[in-house]
Amino acid sequence: MTRVSRALPTVATMLTLTAVLATGCTASAPVEPSDTDPAPLSVPDPAPLSVPDPASLSASEPVAGCGPGSGATKNDGSLTLATDSPAYPPWFASDDPANGEGYEGAVARQVAERLGYDSDSVRFVVVPFADALAPGVKDFDFAINQFTISDDRRSAVDFSSPYYAVAQAVVALRESPAAEARSTADLVRFRLGAQEHSTSLGTAAATVQTELPGTAYATNDDAKEALLAGEIDALVVDLPTGLQISEELSETVMVGQFSRSTAAPDRFGLVLEKDSPMTTCVSIAVETLYDSGVLDALAGTWITDTAGVRVLD
Q1: In this structure, which topology does domain 34-165+267-304 adopt according to CATH?
Q2: ∠ CA(178), CA(181), CA(186), 5° rounding?
């Protein structure tokens, strides 16, 4: 996988880094990374953060001031993580987010370790996708569930630095006319569906501008059932999920992915309560995983190579 060079921080940023190093991870102002610049599909391009340079940290060194005894977590001495149920592959494995397998399962474990929490000190709770993004007090320290970083969501929750960048893709029944689409223009006459509260349907509407309104479903499982039942002609999901569906359901096929020239890739970030004292801590951990090459390695292990997927211009 291709690594991406990052811009050097400005002098002002370096002063901010020094201030954060001096105060640990209890600063009241959370870090909110920018997500405006497109990033490669398999490697997120983190925006400048007011955090210590991850290159100065050991790949296995815990982030100072963030671990057990710091008072930053919901329950001192333990870390509470959240995701939805079921926990889908390739993001998780065996519907068990706590086993450290699947891309997001592995990322969650690595972040926890960077914060100083071993697997015995981490517990997962089930929180529906929309509930995790809703404003208000959370009962978790951070949630991981393919949450796309966006400005409108930042008004309700905090996001960490991005840990993955991904295109949206289209899956159709193998025998459907929609399976023959080779461009976004070919999709305008078809009925599209996606999971509600995700960015997939919005991306499709803005990119394809279909003649028919899209349909939102409570879960990806519901959307898959609608596709199989003929309620929709094509399903819009993130690219790794689309590849997983086309492998899982033999009657479906990956139609293609939206071009980055017309639809910037989504960037996934960890979700935290607004103004959480853990936001900076978690961002430092993610940045360290990025700079040490761990995120690349995990993506290579758990996510199917997307290089050969057709681009729908």
Answers
A1: D-Maltodextrin-Binding Protein; domain 2 (3.40.190)
A2: 95
- The secondary structure of residue 292, as a DSSP letter, is T
**Joined tokens for residue 148:** 């796309």
Q: Spell out the alpha helix ranges (H) of 151-238.
A: 151-154, 200-208, 220-229
pLDDT digits (tens, 9 = 90+) for 176-234: 999 999 999 999 999 999 999 888 988 888 889 888 888 999 999 999 999 999 999 99
> Radius of gyration (Cα) for the chain, nearest Å?
19
* Each residue's pLDDT tens digit, 66-104: 889 888 999 989 999 999 999 999 999 999 999 999 999
pLDDT in tens, 122-134: 999 999 999 999 9
> 3-class secondary structure for 257-281?
EECCCCCCCEEECCEEECCCCCHHH
DSSP structure class, residue 107: H
List helix spans (H) across 158-256: 200-208, 220-229, 239-248
For residue 312, give the H/E element and its range.
strand 311-312
Q: Where are the domains of the chain?
A: 34-165+267-304, 168-258
Instruction: From 147, 167, 169, 170, select the one nearest 158 (Cα to Cα).
Output: 147
Q: Do the domains 34-165+267-304 and 168-258 sit in the same CATH topology, yes or no?
A: yes
The CATH class, in words, for 168-258 is alpha beta
Amino acid 164 reads Y
